[in-house]
Amino acid sequence: MRDEIIDEQLYLKLREYATFRHFYRHAYSFQLNWEKMKPLVENIRDVWEETKKSLVKFIYI
Predict the structure, then answer these.
(1) pLDDT tens across 33-52, in order?
(2) Which of 9-13, 20-24, 27-31, 56-60 has the highest mean pLDDT?
(3) Looking at residue 4, what DSSP letter applies?
(4) In angstroms, rounded to a whole number, what is the distance separating the alpha carbons of residues 61 and 56?
């Protein structure tokens, strides 16, 4: 059996982005709240790097 692609901690981070995407697609842009979006924007690069590392590890192990 292979290891998981992403661990639970990364899953929870990615789920925040999926939740935002779901909200954004079903809401009007005037309802967006910068204070709620700010952590997503500020952390996107770190989350992306973590995601890439997990995918590369999964592919090459």
Answers:
(1) 889 899 999 999 999 999 99
(2) 9-13
(3) P
(4) 8
Binned at pLDDT 50, 70 and 90, residue 16 comes out as: very high
Cα 19 to Cα 3: distance, rounded to the nearest angstrom: 26
Q: Please tell me the distance from the alpha carbon of residue 24 to that of residue 58, in angstroms, as a whole number.
A: 31
Residues 61 and 48: their CA atoms lie apart, in Å, by 20
The gap between the terminal CA atoms of the chain, to the nearest Å, is 12
CB 18 within 8 Å of CB 40: no
> From CA 24, how far away is CA 31, in angstroms rounded?
9
